[in-house]
Amino acid sequence: QVQLVESGGGLVQAGGSLRLSCAASGRIFNVNFMGWYRQAPGKQRELVARIGGGNTMYADFVKARFTISRDSAKNTMYLQMNSLKPEDTAIYYCYVNFGVTARHDYWGQGTQVTVSS
Asked: H/E element holding 22?
C-alpha cells in the first residue's frame, strides 16, 4: 500500500520560511513525477511545484521563493518555502504519479501552512 505523509507545516509570520517534507512508502516504482499542491479555503486545489524526469516546474506565484527537491534514496520530497506571504496560507498536499503502462496517482493527507501578516 502506497502512503505519502507530509510534515513541516505550521504558523509563520510573513517573510518567514518553512520546509515541508513528504515521505513516501510502499510499492512505488518508475516515478514519473512528484509534486506539491495547495488548497486555500474556498478555492480550488492548485499546483505549486513539480519534479520529475530531471526537471522542475513552479507556479508563477512561487517562483524564486520556493524550491522543490527530492531525495530518491530516502523516498522523500521537500519544499523549501521562503519569503512567505499571507496568501500562501493553505493546506499543502504531496502527490506522486508512477508507473509505465499503468499510471498510478496518490495523495498525502495534507499539512496546514498559515502565514500571519
From this structure: strand 18-25
